[in-house]
Structures are given as C-alpha cells and as structure tokens.
Amino acid sequence: MVKNIGFIGFGLIGGSIARALKNINKDNYLITYQYNNSDIKPELSEAINDGSLDKVVFKLDDGFQECDIIFLCAPVLSNIEYLSRLKPLIKPSCILTDVGSVKANIHKAVIDLGLEDQYVGGHPMTGSEKTGYSNSYALLLENAYYIITYTDNTPDQMVRTLAQLVEAMGSIAILLTPYEHDEITAAISHLPHIIASQLVNLVRNSDDEDSHMKQLAAGGFRDITRIASSSPSIWQNICLTNSNSIKKLLDDFINSLINVSIALKDLNEEYLYEMFDEASEYRNSIPKKSIGMIKKLYEIYIDITDETGAIAIVATLLAANNISIKNIGIVHNREFFEGVLRIDFYDSNSVDKAYELLRDNNYKVYER
Known about the structure:
VC0802-like; 12 strands; Rossmann fold; globular; 13 helices; 6-phosphogluconate dehydrogenase C-terminal fold; 368 residues; single chain; alpha/beta; 5-stranded parallel sheet; 3 domains; 4-stranded antiparallel sheet
C-alpha cells in the first residue's frame, strides 16, 4: 500500500498531485525536500497550512528512506541528478517515478544506476502557463492522460501500482515505451512550443516603432501563441534532453514550410487548398473534451449589446448560478472570432453549465 509519499520539487504539478493524493486518503503522509537549509519557503508553508503537505525536510535521509513512492517533480535534468542521491537511501519496495515530459534520457540514467527494478516513468499530460504551488489544484489531473513508461525490466507490479494510483487521482493511464513517448511529445508539445516562441519573436522583430503588430495581436495571435509564455528554463531542459526527436520533426517542419514558400512563389492553387483542407479535416477530428499536453482553454464567446451594465448582467447571472469566472473581457480583434465578449472558466463543467444558462437567457453563445 502507498502511504508514505515523497516529493522532489513541489510546484504546479507536484502540488496538484499532492492535493489529489490527500483527496484520495487524508491519512497519506506527504513530505517534500527543500534543497537550501534555511527557512521553509512560503509556498511550502502554505501547503502545510492547507493540509496538502505534512513535512518539509532539508536532508534526503530525513524521511525519504520510509517512502513507498517518490515523485521527482523538478526540471528534467535535475530529476536525473537526484536518482543517484536517492539510490542508497530508499527501501527495495519504494517506487521512483518522475513527471517530466522527456523519458528516454532518464530511463538510460536509471539503467546505468541499476535502478530498473524500482523506477517507473510518469508524465501527466496536463499543466498551465502559470507555475508554482499557489496555482496547483487536484482537478488539474482530472480526466488528463497520464503516460506511464516502462522497459522490459520494469517490474509489472510497480507499473500496476502506479497505474492504479494515477487512476485513483482521476487521470487516464496510458502505457508507452520511453521512445514512443518522446516521439509523440516532440510532435504534439515540444515542437509547438518552439514554433510559438519563434513566431512571437518574429512579430517582435518585425513590428514598427508604433507597435501596431503588438496592438492588433490581442485576438487570435495571442491565443495560438499563448504557450510561448511557459517557463524558459523548463523548455530549455526539454529541448536539451529530447533534442534528437525534436530536431527530426523540426527538420520535417522546415521542409514543409519550404514547400509552402515554393507554392506561394508559383501561386500553386491546388497545393495551398489541399494544405488548408487536410489540416482543417484532421484538426476537426481531434476530440474536444479530452485533456492533452497543452492546457485546454475553457472559454465561450457571446454577443452582447454595447450598453452600460451589459457585462455586469452576464457576470451576475453566472455568479447567481454558482459558476465561477476565471477571466472576462471584450475581444477587439475579431477576425477569427464570433462573439464580442470572451469568458474564461476553470473547467469543462463550468463551460457546459454557462453555455446552457446563457443560451436559455437568449444570448447567442459560441464555444471554441
């Protein structure tokens, strides 16, 4: 049974896992390691005060030897460094797992350290542009895919134990090899982050002295590049540790852009139409309700009249029906949008309830 649980790193993902584990069983005993031996960090004090965490230690041998499972929630390269420090401390039945979005490199380190019989890879495919424990919540894991990676020498019982724990937290366990995982994540997460960041940099470098591009980017451009706001250090780590898979896909993407450039030069109508048509068809086939690696936006758009109190009426209606709003605002750049008022919510249930409520109150509602 998993009762004593350790964390190396206690930010958004670690904190969300801790909250979920406490929801499963409030008697689970959770500890985390703080690397600098000084006063407990404010966010860790917050976690202790709200009951998500039981103890903060400044030495790994002050409690981690009792752990049934240890979640490595630090950046990818740091997780690897902690493996050798934990090896002489942990008991034989302890499961080591991590939450990093690159797997082949840490599995190689596990093999080199002789820890294959105690390590099971993990990657919750969820997150946020916001970081830190203060932004964590148990429902971050709800209905999210949680990839579990294994090798031929990974103990079946440990894989089953982690899978059962993952599903108890509300996530959907999927088993992959480390190499399958890294190829998939390079395509659907790592490369998109690079593209978004470079697209933002392109606009920044191309803007005029009056910043007209920046001013008009507040609509669709800001949405499709929002992942460029993610932590630079985390994505630097990811690029350095999954470089082969990312580079292969990046080269393919560069070649595809060259083909588009040639089609534009030649005014190739057929190529351009097929490119947009195939992309549209495939994108529309992607499930809307599932949670993937890039955090889903829970948002709706509605038409409202330009009159005093119009936004207040909508906000009051939602509040009166216990629907929490994350953000609300007018969309000025509506080139690719229907609806002038954009409302962001915290989860899919709130979106569904708001959609029905506003439609029943004669608002024209659009869901992205």
